[in-house]
Amino acid sequence: MRLRRATKAQAKAERELTAQLAFQHALLEAIPYPVLVKDSEGRYVAVNRAYETMFEKRREDLIGRTSVETHHLLDVDANVIMHEDAELLRAGGSTRREYQMRRSESDQVRSLIIWRHPVTSADGASRLLGTIVDVSDIRAAEARARASEQRLNDITQAIPGLVFQLHVEPDGRRRFTYVAGDAFGMLGMPAQELLADEPRVLARVHPEDQMLVVRNVEVAATTLQPMRPFDLRFRVGEGWRWLRTEGGMPRRLPDGAVEWSGFWVDTTELHDQAQALTEAKAQAESAVAAKSIFLAAMSHEIRTPMTGVLGLLELLTQTRLGDDQADMALMARDSAKALLQILDDILDYSRIESGRLSIERADFDLRDLIDGAAGLFGARAREGEVRLYSIVDWRLATRFRGDAMRIRQVVTNLLSNALKFTSDGHVELHVRLIEEAGDGQRLRIEVSDTGIGIAPENLSRLFQPFTQAEHSTTRRFGGTGLGLSISRRLATMMGGELHLESEPGVGTRAIFELSLQVVEPLRPRPEFDGRTVVVCVADPLRTQEISNDLSSLGFSLIEIETSDLPDFDCSDADLFVVDAGIAVPHNLLRCPMLRVAGATGVAASDGASGIVLRGDPQSMRSLLAACRNALGIASDDGIPVSVATGSRQRTRVLVAEDHPINRAVIGRMLEKLGYAYEMAENGEQALAELARNRYDLLLTDCHMPVMDGYALTRALRASDGANAGIPIVALSASALPDQVHRCRDAGMDDFLAKPIQLDALAAKLSTLLRIAPGAVLPDALPDAFQGLRSVYQDPAEFLRVLRDLLDMSRDELRELDRAFEAGDEPRQRELLHRMEGALSLVASPLTGADAERRGTAARREAIVATLQAVESELELAAPQPHRTTHDTGG
After folding, report:
1. Among 184, 191, 291, CA closest to 241
2. Distance of alpha carbon 500 from alpha carbon 313, whole angstroms
């Protein structure tokens, strides 16, 4: 029985042991990490499936053998491992060691950590339990992290700046969590100090920049937007260093703090360079200003004697001279003009190069501009026997906004070049409308000639300064070679473009295109709107010139051939424009007519009346005056054109000029133009003369002793005398834009640059005094005077009546002026009515039905104009000294 119970117990124990061993074996196999068991001799007792897989060895090849015998541990010394195992079994404890080895011949070296722990079995035998973990991936990641950190460190050490990470707590406290770079070299502080003490870092920022730093940090932390770049000053040692700070995108952390990365860059050198550049710029501007002052001074000093030289030469050429003398005088005049042009070109080029030439924007009339520019070259064209045409597209707006002075400069440069290189044929100035562009118009201004032309290989270099079409032209034609260079620069500055097209022996065409803002669109003049004009002119370019101007005035146009003229009569049109050389049919002899003078200026002896147009080129101003006169229409101010023209002889001009030669020249010019004048040597004398007598216009030099022209103008405008509002024209040897602006600011109406040209003076006086050009209209009132002569058969009696009428009217005019000053309107109306009635003997248009509807000032001016015409008639009958001091009150 006892044996049976012992047998059963043993069997049960064996089953339990088997189960336990099976469980342990299952557990060992289930562990994902390699596990090994060795005995005290270093022989493998057990390994799991993970161990077999890692080392690619079957357990049958391992159990009962040592690692030295199996040779499956590559790249390590198996004897060393066995020695370590034996020592561990003897001493006890656990070990953890990392080995670099391959798991097979085809494997890469891997990092393996082996945990070893001695255990004692139930039978008292010592065993060694080992577990292996492959940490190769972890070590590779760590290596990559270290390499990345090293690269970042290398980069931050190499860049000329500091990289930082700023941490801002919810309560606003700031601290640096990361700093990399040469902190000591840039800030004079080690990185550890920056990380440990942010307030100390801020304390070394310049006091004026500290609030900027705090404000920018607060904005970035609040808005979570990148901190805008800014520069600050940081104390390093005994000096200040400029640092540029820039930050990345801030991010909010879970605890509410904000963190972002940024960098500092040393910009001290850039600031030093900027300071040096500022100082250099100031020095350069000072040098440019000094050069400009020098050029302006030289301009004034050269122009002052040139005024006398050119003026005297111009007057000399109009006196009786021998052939040799005339030739020499003309050559001297042309040389003086060339010298003046060279001076102007150098001044303009200098201002453009220094950037001191600016483009102005003001309202202007382009037709007036073209009229003036082309008119300047009319006499020069006639001298060279070259026909000059000025054709302006009738569709152009009435007024534009732009820099009229610079546009005129480009046009005159192009005209000057065209006439310089054209010995015969014609020069055509043509202004075309290319397109309507929004609130403006794009224009093409063309100047074409029939001159020598330019070779294609020379066209490209013509716009270079101091360059002409061929090397020999400097000697043949003169000039600086700056005109085209300046013109192109001006065109570009105005937003336009300028180029040339040319063919040797055929001619050249200069094309200037620009866009201008329209201020006032084209509107026909009411007095011509709906009227018809017949144009019969043989020259096709002259036909274009006149027809475009007539169309812009509002006329309906009919262009016909000479052979068609007999088919028309006066009922077919309101006005006829006919070549002066054409014999007008009998049925058109009494029609309103303008006769266009040809190259010879000779009209046909056909008995036809009519006003002769002698323009070469034809100007809009003279055409307008001629049309009004032919149709019996008064001018804009209500004064008949014929009366306005006749007023030139008695208009009173005061000249304030300190240079005696200039006074003599200007006086001769005024005499030649038919104006009465007085002279003053300075502004003080002129002001006293203006207080004593009435004048119609003041010509004043800007720079005079005692009182200059600016002070004179301001004093006159501030006064309440009769001359306070008269037109004032400035005379100056300096033609710089600043000079013109200064004259305008002082209260002057216009500007003439010295040396004064006779035609420029005539045009300026005609415009300001509203007197039509004398070449177009007769100088008196022939119809009215003829009627008075028929009453008085005795010429002496006729002249006596005129003198009595003139004396009486002068007295009443002075009384009228006193009534104006006293504000006595009833007395004004009474005197105006009496004077207009008396003067109807010679000026019936003054007493028309609309006289009462016109303003008193306009009626007075009409009376003054009539008195001046009467004076002219008396002078023609009984010549008197030209420089009269009679007061006409005009």
Report:
1. 184
2. 35
